[in-house]
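Deviation from plan, reported transparently: nicotinamide-adenine-dinucleotide complex.
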Amino acid sequence: MRNIAVLGAGFIGRFYADAIRSQRSRDRLVMVQSRSEEQCISFATKYNVPHRTLEIEAAVNHPDVDTIIVALPNHLHKEAILTCVKYKKAVLCTKPLGRNAAEALSILHAVEQAGIFNGYLEDLVYTPKFLKSQEIIASGALGKILWAKSREAHPGPHSEWFWNKELAGGGAIIDLACHCIEVSRSFIGKDIRPLEIMCWADTQVKPIDAEDHAIGLVKYANGAIGQFEVSWAFRGGLDLRDEVMGSEGTIWSNGFMRTGLEVFTSGQGAGYSAEKAESDKGWIYPIGDELNDLGYNHMFTDMFNALDNDRSPKESFYDGYIINAIMDAAYTSAKSKKWEPIELAIWRGQEHHAKEDLLVSYDDTHWLIKEEITHYGVKKMILKEKSTGRIFERTIE
Ligand SMILES: NC(=O)c1ccc[n+]([C@@H]2O[C@H](COP(=O)([O-])OP(=O)(O)OC[C@H]3O[C@@H](n4cnc5c(N)ncnc54)[C@H](O)[C@@H]3O)[C@@H](O)[C@H]2O)c1
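Because the crystal trials were delayed, the predicted structure below was used instead.
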């Protein structure tokens, strides 16, 4: 059983509290910290939390607390984690780990030198759909993963600090691409090195210094491509979609809207239907179990099981650092308009990963390029002669 302090009593702090207290969990929230007294009281009352404070250090150092969850704005992650290092307490941090790779690296060094447990709270690699997709990929059903695309788009975040480039570290990339990068990276293989990135980013709609829309392509050492699409200018709700293309198959996954539960209402009795939903009347798309479908339950189960069993969770601060490094290179590329290398001060995956040979032999002397049964009932094969390279078609009536 863990005795938990939540630092930050806002949007994500409440999602985390809901998940930890759902399904008769045995882990306990014993402390909440927020800069706002009012938020602290409301959070402590709702979740029946015995202790509350306005000070990060007082929360971390409290004798009843053994595990800290950092759910604070991005500019406070480092300070909060270094306080956990000071008191040698287990720490779980929301995304992004840092506002940039340098900040993330210093956090990683600090927790590893102190030898404290660290978990990176990337919920979207714990959703039931993601976990099932990963299992299917591991079975070999998709063959070699060639391209993994992840999209997160919505009309923009809910608190003022997100919109301040200095406090947040960026715009839609730092806020949303961190999710998408980890989704694609997990599908492609977390031990495959990300090499370089090409990114387009722009401020299309909002009156802010940071980007409100971006698309990036991450090239991996085995030839696979990860793609992210993020926006704070998207209208229509929270669009969470993944696509994976392998040499033997495909997965399309819609994580939030159009998941099969579609409701029409005139608006009578309307209210909250789902995160960032823009309408509560007409056709709406509620989520069956938002906590579970967004991955929070599976994420905390993995984190607390890892803590109890003295092992690393699936997502650690090392992953947070790699993601920050990829996002740093995305910002560089968006400025230079060129492919930019992804600089990794630490890499723990495979060093060399040659592009796999996916050629299919038709017989000893030919490669098979493609076969197809046509609408007029013949089978056509496109073949390539191995010795000469000549490409030709063969038709079987
Ligand atoms: N799916 C996800 O994983 C997810 C979703 C949303 C937010 N987040 C992350 O969670 C963190 C917090 O985001 P949020 O949406 O809960 O923010 P929020 O604004 O809703 O809540 C922030 C909390 O931090 C407290 N706080 C303490 N010092 C503060 C300061 N100097 N400025 C502003 N707030 C201060 C606020 O009082 C509040 O309780 C961010 O790092 C964000 O990226 C993750």
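The chain has eleven helices and 19 strands. We consider this an acceptable substitute for the interim report.
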